[in-house]
């Protein structure tokens, strides 16, 4: 046939569709989409639109509405040409880009809306029958229409969609009849005494018209039945959108020529009065358009439900069998039941409005998916039909804006339902590995932020601890890992590093698997940190090498935390890295922690800071103490600054300095300066005052070369008297300035 050959050249019909059991572009996408677009609104509301706002504003409404749908068509085309589109159409696209939680939050309302659409179309067809059968029982007729739609759909998508071809012919005939009548017949005038309904605002009229162009995804729902979805979806949806635009630009002109404003506004079936041969050429097209839209919804809804079931968001028995020529029978039965039950609701005006909200939320989300995929910079985003992210974003804003214009309470209701479903699914869905857009977007944002961060110089004011915590085994040193996270207090990045000493080829360590295990352990214990594994030849050199390489740009580690070693020789080796770490502007903390000590949110703890001066690590110790109290487990903690004076003069000077310092640094702390008595050692005083403290912070000096062993022995003696203690060495560029401005003397 010449027409079929022409369509084939345009890419709208595939010869192999029938032989493969799959649908081509014309039957699978273009036909259901265009028949959903050219439906009830065109026949029953277009005259009212022209009568309310005039021809010029009607054209403006048509252009604005179609701009939104055209942008959405281009967005879904970009997504469709970049990746495989499976069963479920819009749900499949959204879930694979934004994750199952958001996909399900959109998918379930989408399915319900598709199922209710069958009922809405059935009611519209039943009410239109009143023009030839005035006493028709609306509910009973709608019930029978739904059953007829289901029977036709059960025959299979291919059969049902082929049955829509005659409907297209009927619609074309009705349009020709309207054109002929408008230009050859007399212009209709409202009878004398007839008063047109009160005019309404532009956006109210826009809201009434907009559902006429919301059928652009009718073909997308059939994605699992398409021979070549990547080609069929963009070609069919864009072609249907453009054809619909041309028709919607022509119809208001014909209506304007054929009747005056009062007649257009007052008569829902003005077409039957303008068209040649009256209702005989118009009503068959009207009925066919409504019936075909109902069939499209009956075919599309079960496939959305099937896709949800395949992703285990619904009962598995709804998944059915997926192969050419098969229908999701279980889903169709459920859809039929919902549609029939909805008949008994009687007044479906509110339901129809909410259903439109759900459809528009899907369209808006598809636009956002396209924009986010572009902005994420993912190398895998390579659509053959590309669209700039700004156009997709404009389409998304347009969709959500129209929702508010149509009915803002229904918009709030729809968004609330979707939010509730998202919150429900977020706790229950599995994490899949197909790679959603969020990781790509996070990486893009991080890269942008790191570039900006690296361009700004670090100052004492914005310094924060990025902790690198070395442990031999995370499971055994959770106490140290937890303190590392507490010291950072969600203000810095914490890395928990297991350090293995030996040859990387000889050690049987699966680095990737172990890092995943570490991260799992940290997450299970509520520790916000990043696990990593490093294999080094030598402990000292390994610590320095990892410290240099950990992090990136302005987020590189600046504070190393190591646990208290089992033997003195290991402590000596830690002390030897103080100088090179300071050369790298990195601080060192050696922590002795008691894994048997637990901390509760309602517990009152004591944090003791042994003061030696701001530039003798005092600033970092105070900052760590303050950050510790910002954590829920330490919110009731009391900071106590302790110092030892050898005489009354020194005691008074220290007390006056701290009294001036504390208000300036805005850290709530008590001060206690002890006067050293003759015969009492400093260690004895510290043990006496802080033996029962929950955490003790002490300064860590840089030992002289060759004196590391003696210094290690003194530290071991001192640490023996505390439950949890941390020896702190400030190796940053801002020694003495981390908590206080320079003006404090």
Q: Can you walk through the features of this model?
A:
The protein is α/β, with parallel strands linked by helices and 745 residues long. The chain folds into 2 domains: 404 residues, Amino acid/polyamine transporter I (Up-down Bundle); 263 residues, Rossmann fold (3-Layer(aba) Sandwich). It has 28 helices and 10 strands. Strands 3-2-1-4-5-10-9-6-7-8 form a 10-stranded mixed beta sheet, with helices on both faces. Helix 5 crosses helix 18. The N terminus is likely disordered.
Structural class: alpha/beta
CATH topology of the largest domain: Amino acid/polyamine transporter I
Low-confidence stretches: 1-20, 192-196
CATH superfamily membership of the largest domain: Amino acid/polyamine transporter I
Question: Under the CATH scheme, which architecture of the largest domain would be assigned?
Answer: Up-down Bundle
Task: Estimate nothing, just give the exact number of structural domains.
Answer: 2
The CATH class of the largest domain is identified as: Mainly Alpha
Choose one word for the global shape.
elongated
**In percent, how helical is the residue content?**
55-70%
| Biggest beta sheet attributes | 10 strands, mixed
- The fraction of residues assigned to DSSP E strands is 5-15%
Q: Note the total helix count.
A: 28
